[in-house]
Structure prediction request, 112 residues.
Amino acid sequence: MQLWLDILSWILLSGGGLFVLIGGIGIIRLPDLYTRMHAASLTDTMGTVMILLGIMLQAGLSLASVKLAAIAVFLLLTGPTATYALANAAMLAGRHPKDVEMPPDLPEDLRL
Prediction:
């Protein structure tokens, strides 16, 4: 049983690290504020929660796991809220997303 918990925890830790890496690359490579914010928010939420779950499996049933669960809940509540507040403030300050060219064969009801 312990072997399966170790395997699952390392899968979660590796997956979370991969999410964080991809999000960091996205912040550097993506073209505008809003797409960079999207990459950062996904990294903050999914990557961090996966890493915390992997650490919780390694820690077992203990006070450390309870504290890590509280941190995960806090991050799940505050991360998306902070990203929304930042995007809303940028929009109110006049930073609009870059114009996106629509394909010519796109139906009219699907255009922005």
Notes: Residues 2-94 form one domain. The longest helix spans residues 63-92. The mean pLDDT is 87. The chain has one domain: 2-94.
